[in-house]
Amino acid sequence: MTHEKPAPDATPIVSLSKLNKHYGELHVLKDIDLTVVPGEVVVIIGASGSGKSTLIRCVNGLEEFQQGELEVDGNTLLPNGKATRALQKIRTEVGMVFQQFNLFPHLSVLDNVTLAPMRVRGWSQDDATATARRLLARVGISDQADKYPSQLSGGQQQRVALARALAMEPRLMLFDEPTSALDPEMIGEVLDAMRELAREGMTMMIVTHEMGFAREVADRVIFIDKGRIAEEGPPEQIFDAPQHPSTQSFLSRVL
Ligand code: ADP
Ligand code: MG
């Protein structure tokens, strides 16, 4: 923990209450209650198939849910995809970085980063370009601006994806296993960029298997077991003294 501790009693920027999600017969998320306050870094861990991606995709409206309520920065999403205006607002305020970088292959690095601010926010080319160059420098790839994604390493592409998300000036950043598709020697450079972002006070929800990183940057760790939050707490508590048998068994397998 390098940044100042977020105030635990601050008004949450993310709030899920009794959220339930089904894929047909499959009950994927079960009574999820979760709040995140501004500046907080929440790391979500759990076995493969436990519902981590689904949870994080619900937060920016990529997935519908069937029961419960979800509020992001004052925008309320209701079950079954109602409230489309709120959905649009959430999508412009929440940035996301996926395991697969999902860059536009036919656009240069610079154009990947300027596209959304120009199209969605209506920024001029000059403003968007200046911001993009600043962000590319911030993630350490200012010299790659005119290349195409295929000419970059995986670690560089993921840092472009991060810069692209940040260009929209998000209020919240979601990460779904951002380093899982990377060669080992490139994981560090992406984690460094995320660590820096956390230090600057960005609110972040991160799904990761990088337990060392989780211990270091998380204000709170959430352990999901079969669609339920089985245990949550500060990293020292979850990693050093897990209470729930499923947390103990998961950690004994991954640590
Ligand atoms: P995790 O990210 O923790 O590995 P997921 O959220 O991806 O877990 O998946 C949770 C469960 O939901 C798994 O059983 C998975 O097979 C199922 N699932 C995920 N996406 C879909 C989908 N689009 N349709 C049907 N089932 C899905
Ligand atoms: Mg997943």
TrEMBL record:
One of its GO terms (molecular function) is ATP binding. The keyword Nucleotide-binding applies. PROSITE patterns: ABC_TRANSPORTER_1, ABC_TRANSPORTER_2. Keywords: ATP-binding, Nucleotide-binding, Transport. The keyword Nucleotide-binding applies. Residues 14-251 form the ABC transporter domain. InterPro entries: AAA+_ATPase, ABC_ATPase_HisP-typ, ABC_transporter-like_ATP-bd, ABC_transporter-like_CS, MetN_ABC_transporter-like, P-loop_NTPase. Residues 233-255 are annotated as: Disordered. Belongs to the ABC transporter superfamily. This is Amino acid ABC transporter ATP-binding protein. It comes from Paracoccus methylarcula.
